[in-house]
Amino acid sequence: MIAEIQTMGTYKYCQKTLQNPIACVGVGLHTGQKVHMTLRPAEIDTGIVFRRVDITDKDNVIPATYNHVVDARLCTCIGNTAGVKVSTIEHIMGALAGFCISNAVIEVDGPEVPLMDGSATDFVTLIECAGVMDQNAPLRAIKVNQEVVLVDKGAEVALTPAEDGLDLNFMIDFKSRAIGHQEYSVPLDTDTFKNDIAYARTFGLAEEVDALRAMGLIQGGSLDNAVVVQGDTILNPEGLRSENEFVVHKVLDAVGDLYQLGMPVIGHFMGVKSGHAHTNALLKMLMADEKNYTVVCLDDYEAEKNVRKTA
Question: What is the dihedral of CA 260, 262, 266, 272, to 10 degrees?
Fold first, then answer.
């Protein structure tokens, strides 16, 4: 269930933003560059937007929406028509989704969101320190009306109808016994995100590191911000944060990528050995046909549902 909101305004389910700006600094996973990031409150119906403050000679604002995704191979990268990009947005987007933040401006002084410890834990802390503020505007959601499925070379993603909120199910299967076959199912609400999803770090295989770095990628990756697996061994001295940290991280990624619809989802998401590109393609399929979804005001939706229950 989407968390109920107690507000001084008109709406039971309302839009939210941050109470105060808050900043952090970290290293980008792929660029290896130090990046300063500031989360700022935003007006009603702004949505989540990124602003490249290091760029001043052209449009430096990018809406964090599925139709602005320009690359989704190893992370989610968004861009605008001026060619300005911000990559690795999925973890901060996951945290914003977890707190159901509708409106925020995210300023960065480089091409990538800082990775922090490879999870969303630091972003949860930032949001809690900034505070969350209710706004006097209705919260809208996308209700999935019919199943939308994408199958691609052994990977599969799907969105199917549900009565309430968003729940997610993910399955991965790796040859390495350190990862192996893992499945995880979880409903999305703020407490569940904070306690059961946010902690999971990004991960990679040691045998792929050299090739990726030769391509100019994962320049900022290390055992401080990623779980690295070599054969059947976890290289991180501290080990895993949970036995299923790998699949939980895939759920974290999915939460962040799904929030690029610009509002919460009422539906069920399933991912099987899939990644960012599959989820983005699924969102494009969903939104390509108006029969697939309905945009609902959650106050009205809940009222209508209660009427049906008592009828």
Answer: 0
Per the annotation, the verdict on 276 as an active-site residue is: yes
Supply the pLDDT for residue 8.
43
242 contacts 127 by C-beta, under 8 angstroms: no
Catalytic entry in 68, 268, 276, 278: 276
Bridge-based pairing state of the strands 104-108 and 48-52? parallel
Rounded to 5 degrees, φ, ψ at 286 are: -60, -50
Residue pair 50/78 in contact by the 8 Å Cβ criterion: yes
Burial of 55 (0-12, 13-18, 19+ CB in 10 A): middle
The alpha-carbon radius of gyration of the chain (Å, integer) is 19
Instruction: Check which CATH number belongs to the domain holding 102 and give it.
Output: 3.30.1700.10
Please report whether residue 1 resides in a domain. Answer: no
What distance lies between CA 97 and its chain's CA centroid?
A: 7
**C-alpha pair distances (Å), 298 with each of 48, 190, 241, 310:** 19, 17, 36, 18
Q: Is residue 271 part of a domain?
A: yes
How many Å apart are CA 174 and CA 19, to the nearest integer?
42
Summarised one tens digit per residue, pLDDT across range 138-169 is 999 999 999 999 999 999 999 999 999 999 99
Instruction: Find the domain containing 128 and state its range.
Output: 14-310
Q: How many CA atoms lie within 13 A of 76 on its CB side?
A: 30
H helix intervals, the chain:
90-98, 121-130, 190-192, 206-214, 245-258, 276-288, 298-310
Cα–Cα separations (whole angstroms), residue 121 to 116, 117, 202: 9, 8, 12
Q: Does 274 map to a domain?
A: yes
Domain tally for the chain?
1
Give the residue among 269, 290, 264, 61 at the shortest CA–CA distance from 171: 269
d(CA 81, CA 84): 7
| DSSP-derived 3-state class of residue 183 | strand
User: pTM value?
Assistant: 0.94
Kindly state whether residue 250 falls inside one of the protein's structural domains: yes
